[in-house]
Design a protein that fits this description.
Layout lengths: L1 H9 L4 H21 L2 H17 L4 H16 L8 H19 L5 H13 L1
């Protein structure tokens, strides 16, 4: 529930909410990386994948999730995982995104997916 709420806030609609929630998430992930808690960072990435696969039909979750992961990738938050784990995350997330936008007419979801494809 906490991860879901944070992801929805980071990918949210209001600039104020996005700015503050992103600041908190970025600080948390930076502290994990600098403290050597790479397993926790991997657990966070796995949680994103699990949330996407469980909530794939819930647009109130998937669109903010796409925006959040795009922001995480753009700020290189997953680089400490290493190339192999980062590639596995990207590959699995890409498959989930493809399945999500197949046949979608939601322009916001499609645009968020395009941004995410560019980040992967």
């Amino acid at each position: 529930p906490v991860l879901s709420g944070l992801v929805i806030a980071v990918g949210g609609l209001t600039e104020s909410l996005v700015r503050h929630s992103w600041s908190s998430l970025e600080s948390y992930l930076a502290s994990l990386s600098s403290s050597g808690y790479i397993e926790e960072l991997q657990h966070f990435a796995d949680g994103l994948l699990e949330m996407f696969s469980k909530e794939h039909t819930n647009e109130r979750v998937t669109v903010p999730l796409l925006k959040s992961v795009d922001l995480l990738l753009a700020n290189q938050c997953f680089l400490p995982l290493g190339a192999e784990k980062l590639e596995a995350f990207g590959t699995e997330f890409l498959q989930l995104v493809r399945a999500e936008i197949r046949g979608s007419t939601d322009i916001v979801k499609v645009m968020s997916s395009i941004n995410l494809y560019c980040g992967l």
